[in-house]
Amino acid sequence: MLFCLPWCVDFVQVQSTVYANSMFTRSALLTALRRSGRLPACNDGFRSAGKCRTFLNIFRNLRPTSEPPPALNDNDLFHPFSKSPFPAVRARGETIQSLALCPVCTSESKHTGGSPSRVKYECPDCGWPSHCSEEHWEVDEEHKKYCSRLREVNEDEHDLRRGRKMREFHLPGPQAYEEAISFANWDLFWYTRGFPSMDTERSRRHATKLLTYPLTIGSVLHQNSGLTLNNRRVTPEGSRSLAALRTTLHVPPGAPDTEEAGAAKPQIRVFILGARAESSLPPHVWEQLCMLFPSCHLHLFFIGPQVSLPKPADEAVAQDTKSSASSTTEQREECKESPPLYVPNIYQPPAPKPIARLKRTRSSVQLYGFPSYTVPYTPQLTVTGIQANYSEVHGQFEETFDPYTDAFFLFSPGFGFPSMTSVSESNGIPLLQIASPTEWGPVIPALLASRCSIFVTGFSPEDMERDIRSLGITPNVAGEFEWVINPGINIFGSEKWEVADFDPRVMVKANWGLWAIRGKGRQIRKW
Ligand SMILES: [Zn+2]
Ligand SMILES: [Zn+2]
C-alpha cells in the first residue's frame, strides 16, 4: 500500500519494549525494576508508587540507585542527520538522500524539463536533508513553513534514543471499578487512568504515538466514548451497533464492572485487518485496552500480509539468556542498534521485525493454515497474529461473526490509493485498492455481509476523504453500507508528525481521523 504509515509505531514501540518489557515478560521486568529500586515493590498502578510495601520488603532500602546519565542532555537534542550520534538516525538521513528530490529543482524541472537532483544539503535549522544545495535551500520560501515541524521530529528522534528514563511509557495497572474513565481528550484520559503527568509536549507526542492504536479502539467502543448521538458523530443506526457491543463489553448499570463479573460473558473479538506495525506493539501496551473493560475477555486478531510474527523459538532462547544482564545495560545495548539500521517508510515495506516470543506463545499454523501465533497474555487478553491476506482466512470466521461480540478495525487502509498490483481490464489504469482483487476488493463486501461494525482511520483529512470517496464508486460497496460513525477527527490520534522519507514535505499523523460503517444487511452474501 502506498505511503501507509507502517512507520508509525517503530521506535516508540521498541523503546517501550526496552523500557517496559526488556526481559520478554512483564513480570520478569517488574522484578528487575523492583530489585533496582526503580519501581516500588507492588506495582498495581502508577498511583501506588511509593505507597505499597508488603511485610516481606518492609525493611528493604527503596532508595533509587543512581541512574546512568542519558547519552544527550535536554539541550543537546538537535543534530543534523549526518552528524547524529545514533547510527539509525544517520542511516535514515542516507535513505532520505537516496529517495527524496529537491523541491526547488522539482518545480524548476516542470518548466525546463530537466531531471531534479536528490536532496544532499542538510538544512541547518531542522537537520533534515532538504535540498540539493545551499543555494536552493536559500531560495525556498516554502521550507520555512514546515522547518520547525521537522526540527521537532529531529529532536524527538534523538530524545527517544538517548537512553533517558521514559516516564511517559510507564503504563498504569488495572482501574479501580468505582473510578470512571474519561475519553473527552488525552489529558482527561491520562488523569482518570492514573498515568504519570505528561509535562512536556514532547512527552505527549511520545505517549500518544504509543497509545493511539489501543486507545482509538477503546475510546470508540467504551460506553463513556466522546463520540455520541448528541455531537452527531454517531448515527442512530450506529448507536444501535455500539449498544450491542457495549452489552458484552460492560456489565448492566449498577453492577460492579470487575473481572469476576465477566465470568459468564462471551469473548469480544477485535479483528485488526491489514495490520502492520500495530501488530508488533508489545502486548503490555495492548493490555491498556483490556483495562478499560475490566469484565471483558478480549481476543485481538492481527491479520494481514505484514503482520509481525514471533522470533523463532531457538533465537528467543538465545536472546533470553543474553537478557539476564541488568535492564539498564540492555537499554544501552539496544540503543547501539544492530543492522538493518533503518527500514525506509515507503510503498510496500517488509513486515516489522519479529516480536518477542513469550512463555505462552504458541504456533497457530495448524489452526489457520498460515504462519500465525496465539498468546494467551492474561486471562483478559489473548492475541493472535495471522500473516495472510484477510480474504484467505475469512472463510474460517465467516459463520461465527456476531455484531454483539465482533468488530473490525482498519488503520489507514489506503482504500482510495491506486493498487500496486491490479489494473483495470478495460483501460489498464491501476484499480483503487478498495476494488483490487489482491487487496481490499473481496474483503469489504464480506465484512459488510457480517453486519459487524467496521471502524476505519485515516492519517490526514485528505487521506480520509480519498478513502471515503472510494466507497461511493466501488461495486458491491456503494449503496451497501450505512454509517455508524460520521467521519471526523479522532480524539485519540497520535500527536506526533510522521515524515515521509521519499519527500520530507509530506507529514501526517497516525489515526488523525475516524469513521465507521456497517453492512445494510439486506442479504447474506456468500463469499
Ligand atoms: Zn535543487
Ligand atoms: Zn529546515
Could you explain how this protein is built, in words?
- It contains 16 helices and 15 strands.
- Among the domains are: 81-161, no CATH class; 215-320 and 361-519, no CATH class.
- A nine-stranded mixed β-sheet has the order 5-6-7-4-3-8-11-15-12. A two-stranded antiparallel sheet has the order 1-2. It has a two-stranded antiparallel ribbon with strand order 9-10.
- The model is unreliable at 1-9, 18-59, 323-337 and 523-527 (pLDDT under 50).
- The two termini are 24 Å apart.
- α8 (201-221) crosses α10.
- The chain has 527 residues and is α/β, with parallel strands linked by helices.
- Bound molecules: zinc ion (2 copies).
Helix content percent band? 25-40%
Q: Could you tell me the radius of gyration in angstroms?
A: 24 Å
* Main sheet strand line-up: 5-6-7-4-3-8-11-15-12
Structure summary, number of beta strands? 15
Largest sheet: 9 strands, mixed
Oligomer: single chain
Bound molecules: zinc ion
Q: Which parts are unreliable, with pLDDT below 50 for 5 consecutive residues or more?
A: 1-9, 18-59, 323-337, 523-527
Strand content: 5-15%
Could you say which structural class the secondary elements and strand pairing correspond to? Answer: alpha/beta
Distance between the termini: 24 Å
Shape: globular
* Mean pLDDT over the residues: 83
SS element count, helices:
16
